């Protein structure tokens, strides 16, 4: 799954970052970042399209995915081995069902390939604190951003995916029986509006309950 997000904190993707409106399907919006799983991380055409539009991305990639460094191409898992112990930072990727989701994170600058746009490139590595399992992300931004920003975008992808799963259960997001774009588009918008209504109603009720208890 791929998801786009506007930085809710108003940073527009970090100090000095310049993002242009991205038009998709006739709709234009200010998308600062795009996050996606390994299917999208392995697609060079998608990465180039985002870079050409000035849209930053944090895309998951496989351990066998190769990135370009100053000494040539290397697998992501092999590059991660070179990360010194002091380079890891424990940061939260957002709220989960049991509170904040903390992982150890490290990032490594990588080189652009032939014909790729200018900008900042990193391999982002996530380490599970309990199991030591590693996950890898290929990242790009038109201007320098802090590590915390990339972690935030990576975490937002999980939030979006959880919302899609919930909307399938609660509002029938995946229950459309048509194959035409217009009908599917209308169904999807109505299902997401219904889910947004339920989310706002739930948040309001929880806030009122907390106020009364206090």
TrEMBL record:
<protein>
    <submittedName>
        <fullName>Transposase</fullName>
    </submittedName>
</protein>
<dbReference type="InterPro" id="IPR039365">
    <property type="entry name" value="IS701-like"/>
</dbReference>
<dbReference type="InterPro" id="IPR012337">
    <property type="entry name" value="RNaseH-like_sf"/>
</dbReference>
<dbReference type="GO" id="GO:0004803">
    <property type="term" value="F:transposase activity"/>
</dbReference>
<dbReference type="Pfam" id="PF01609">
    <property type="entry name" value="DDE_Tnp_1"/>
</dbReference>
<feature type="domain" description="Transposase IS4-like">
    <location>
        <begin position="32"/>
        <end position="196"/>
    </location>
</feature>
<dbReference type="InterPro" id="IPR002559">
    <property type="entry name" value="Transposase_11"/>
</dbReference>
<dbReference type="GO" id="GO:0003677">
    <property type="term" value="F:DNA binding"/>
</dbReference>
<dbReference type="GO" id="GO:0006313">
    <property type="term" value="P:DNA transposition"/>
</dbReference>
